[in-house]
């Protein structure tokens, strides 16, 4: 699969399904079998036995011909057209209706048997990527597991997570099959925890099994805090870069130039970075360059906010308040990544308490049993508590600090018309270009009657 399909939705074509009036049922049956065409219907499509009759009746009839309009992945059009030809039907290319974006189908498969990629889980639970936007699923998954590992850095406790992820992937445990799609995150989070545990010298706490290769969280909290903020700055820079690309695709260079999550916002973020660099290095020219760039960026942002507010005195006041909020929000978002160090330090402190309790009780008599219980229970409680906290905090940073800059609009998922015509399970639309799944209802605002000339 071309690498571009991993970063952007699959290219869609607007087409009209056209067939002789008397062969409507045959054409629709073939479309349902392929599961690669989303039909615009004047009702919410279903999957029951009467769906074929309803779709047949919804055709636009012109003389001896019947037609429906819809969307299909560009690379699936030739195959569907070839299957329709023996039935006297065909697909006619149409222009995209004004003010309407194509539905979004993301990379993740190319057959009816393909399943959604586990790496899509984060983005899919947040929003539907707008058609033409950048899909950050792989980058978001990588950032998530790194942030989790930094907060849950323990090589010993990371190994059970890796094992749990591999068990989820097999799907052999019936009660856990509903969580199978999260196996990649569980496994990746466990591996990241192992890596950071090795760097921290943590193996079920400060047991001395592993040497400290990078930082000891309890002994060097300030360097860990600085590293967390710097890592957050790198993630924010990536979010601004992706956001700028999306703003250009959504509204052109003019829109991106004044957007807070576009070029103007990126320039403001760069100015903050140059200012910090200049102050730390004592470089006056860098501080001056940061001041000039910051003023220009704030000016562009103000113009964009003023235009969005409708102008006038009220608009100016609103733009001024939102401009201040933009600066405050940027600072708070950057500092927010300090929690990576804070929760990493908390995890190390809790495990330190558990290990101190274990060693204090240890003796070659009955107290050894108490020491083992303290070690096991302490690890179990810390594992459950810190695992939950690290998972939630990493998700919060993804959603509020990163995705809020990448996404400003929401797309509409591709829902192929694929009713169950013979009792067999339909293909699932969520994860493949063949739409493997049943056709789910689309938002009411996106419905309009099909027309062969639309």
Automatic annotation (TrEMBL):
Chain segments carrying region Disordered: 95-116, 418-454
Family, as annotated: Belongs to the V-ATPase 116 kDa subunit family.
Localization annotation: Membrane
Gene Ontology cellular component terms for the protein in this record: proton-transporting V-type ATPase, V0 domain; vacuolar proton-transporting V-type ATPase complex
Cited InterPro entries: V-ATPase_116kDa_su
Membrane topology category: Multi-pass membrane protein
Signal sequence, renumbered to the chain: none
Transmembrane residue ranges: 141-168, 180-201, 221-243, 255-280, 286-306, 340-363, 369-395
Main location: membrane
BP term (GO), one: vacuolar acidification
Single GO MF descriptor: proton-transporting ATPase activity, rotational mechanism
Compositionally skewed regions (Basic residues) per UniProt: 437-454
Name of this chain's protein: V-type ATP synthase subunit I
Organism for this UniProt entry: Arthrobacter saudimassiliensis
Domain of life: Bacteria
Keywords from the UniProt entry: Ion transport, Membrane, Transmembrane, Transmembrane helix, Transport
Listed PANTHER family: V-TYPE PROTON ATPASE SUBUNIT A, VACUOLAR PROTON ATPASES
């Amino acid at each position: 699969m071309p690498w571009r399909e991993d970063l952007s939705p699959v290219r869609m074509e607007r087409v009209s399904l056209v067939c002789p009036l008397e062969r409507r049922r045959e054409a629709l049956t073939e479309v349902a079998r392929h599961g690669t065409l989303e039909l615009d219907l004047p009702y919410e499509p279903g999957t029951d036995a009467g769906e074929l009759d309803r779709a047949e009746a919804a055709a636009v009839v012109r003389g001896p011909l019947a037609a429906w309009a819809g969307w299909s992945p560009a690379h699936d059009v030739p195959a569907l057209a070839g299957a329709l030809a023996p039935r006297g039907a065909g697909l006619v290319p149409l222009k995209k209706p004004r003010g309407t974006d194509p539905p979004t189908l993301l990379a993740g498969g190319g057959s009816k048997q393909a399943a959604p990629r586990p790496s899509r889980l984060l983005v899919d639970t947040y929003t539907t990527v707008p058609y033409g936007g950048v899909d950050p699923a792989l980058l978001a998954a990588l950032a998530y597991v790194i942030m989790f590992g930094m907060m849950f850095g323990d090589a010993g406790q990371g190994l059970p997570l890796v094992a749990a992820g591999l068990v989820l992937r097999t799907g052999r445990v019936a009660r856990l099959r509903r969580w199978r799609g999260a196996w990649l995150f569980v496994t990746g989070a466990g591996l990241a925890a192992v890596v950071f545990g090795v760097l921290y010298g943590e193996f079920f706490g400060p047991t001395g099994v592993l040497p400290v290769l990078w930082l000891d969280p309890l002994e060097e909290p300030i360097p860990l805090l600085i590293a967390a903020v710097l890592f957050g700055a790198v993630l924010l820079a990536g979010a601004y870069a992706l956001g700028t690309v999306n703003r250009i695709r959504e509204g052109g260079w003019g829109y991106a130039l004044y957007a807070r999550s576009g070029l103007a916002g990126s320039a403001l973020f760069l100015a903050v970075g140059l200012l910090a660099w200049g102050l730390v290095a004592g470089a006056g020219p860098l501080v001056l360059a940061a001041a000039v760039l910051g003023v220009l960026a704030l000016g562009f942002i103000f113009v964009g906010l003023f235009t969005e507010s409708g102008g006038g005195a009220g608009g100016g006041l609103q733009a001024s308040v939102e401009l201040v909020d933009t600066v405050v929000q940027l600072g708070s978002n950057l500092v927010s990544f300090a929690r990576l160090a804070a929760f990493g330090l908390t995890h190390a402190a809790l495990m330190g308490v558990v290990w101190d309790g274990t060693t204090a009780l240890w003796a070659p008599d009955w107290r050894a049993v108490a020491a083992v219980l303290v070690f096991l229970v302490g690890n179990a409680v810390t594992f459950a508590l810190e695992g939950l906290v690290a998972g939630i905090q990493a998700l919060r940073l993804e959603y509020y600090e990163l995705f809020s800059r990448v996404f400003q609009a929401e797309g509409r998922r591709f829902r192929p018309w694929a009713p169950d015509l013979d009792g067999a399970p339909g293909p699932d639309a969520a994860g493949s270009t063949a739409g493997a799944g049943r056709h789910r209802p689309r938002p009411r605002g996106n419905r309009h009657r099909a027309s062969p000339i639309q």
